[in-house]
Write a structure and sequence with these properties.
This protein has a five-stranded antiparallel β-sheet, with no helix packed on it. A four-stranded antiparallel β-sheet has the order 1-2-3-4, with no helix packed on it. A four-stranded antiparallel β-sheet has the order 10-9-7-12, with no helix packed on it. The chain has two domains: about 35 residues, no CATH class; about 90 residues, RNA polymerase II/Efflux pump adaptor protein, barrel-sandwich hybrid domain (OB fold (Dihydrolipoamide Acetyltransferase, E2P), Beta Barrel). The chain is an all-beta fold. It contains no helices and 13 strands. About 0% of the residues lie in helices and about 45% in strands. It is globular. The termini are far apart. Strand 3 and strand 4 form a beta hairpin.
Length: about 140
């Protein structure tokens, strides 16, 4: 399916092959973008004991997109190209499933990047104001 989408004064060509795929891959002016709709039920994480947190969780904050780490490598990847507008965690921070890790702005929309599992953040490779490309490594989980 090919759509023409107008946002402000700009027109984008959006091509979506299959709306049933997860993530949905949309080509926006030829640039692939992965989208995880929130209307899908989220997987229930296994129960974990509560861990002390250095910073309060924003897990209940609304977002337009849920994005995932690359599960096999424990890296948290940029789901779309954009600009990092905030970082909610620090290295060695314990995070819970669904907790906001950072916010990426793309096409004037803020998208929360959330943890797909509980764990500890290893390294953070981005800074506020930095432009990132699709699939750039934002941060990773520390080795267990």
């Amino acid at each position: 399916m090919i759509y023409r989408v107008k946002i402000a004064d700009r027109v984008f060509t959006v091509e979506i092959a299959n709306l049933q795929d997860r993530p949905i891959v949309a080509l926006v002016d030829g640039e692939p973008i992965e989208v995880w709709p929130e209307d899908e039920p989220r997987p229930t994480p296994p129960p974990t004991p509560p861990a002390p947190s250095k910073k309060p969780s924003n897990a209940a904050a609304p977002s337009r997109m849920v994005v995932a780490s690359n599960g096999a490598t424990n890296k948290i990847l940029a789901p779309i190209p954009g600009v990092i507008v905030s970082i909610a965690v620090q290295p060695d921070a314990e995070v819970a499933f669904g907790q906001e890790l950072c916010v990426l702005e793309a096409m004037k929309m803020k998208n929360a990047v959330r943890a797909t599992k509980a764990g500890r953040i290893g390294s953070i490779y981005v800074s506020i104001g930095q432009q990132v490309k699709h699939h750039d490594v934002l941060m990773d989980y520390a080795e267990a």
